[in-house]
Amino acid sequence: MKSKFIIIEGPDRVGKDTQQDLIVKNMPTKVFHKIHYTSVPFKGEQGTTYSARMYTDMFEMMLSLKNKNINIIFNRSHLGESIYAPLYREYNGDYVFEIENKYVNSLRENLYLITLVNNTKTLVNRDDGNSFYESEEGLKAEVDGFNRAHIKSKIKNKLKINVGTMTAEEISFIITDFLQSKNTLEIDNQLKLNL
Description:
Blueprint: E1 5-9, H1 16-26, E2 32-36, H2 44-65, E3 71-75, H3 78-89, H4 95-103, E4 111-117, H5 120-125, H6 136-152, E5 157-162, H7 168-180, H8 184-194
Parallel strand pairs: 1-3, 1-4, 2-3, 4-5
């Protein structure tokens, strides 16, 4: 059985942790490992060097495990680097797409991207004070960045959900259906038309 590597991306307080836990609950025939990437504490060239190594190692790990029936959920990953690096760490994070491009064909059937977004007003209301942004405009830049990064990613199996006022269970139903579908690309295209 092939491994599943599920990346969940999106701004703070959009529901990534909740959806990660619901994937585990709603797919009980699979055992999942969970990896949560935290923010890189370095700026400038040191940040680029550290992150490039970290995300290269992440993809190398996936490649080595792709046929071993090991399932991993990545709570945050390389796409966040393309947004947060220029906004808060003083360097361009688009190099992560070059790293991704080296691996996506080899991981075509194993790798899934789920990007969650919402409107800035809802996210501000859910903020716990630990987010990077200092204004609603900063948060809007983050949300716009995740929308762009999702489009720019070459991962075949990808799903973007504007969670809006949906419940966690409604969102989880869409995600579970996406992850269990034989033709995930088709589901992605249908959802884009509906959102």
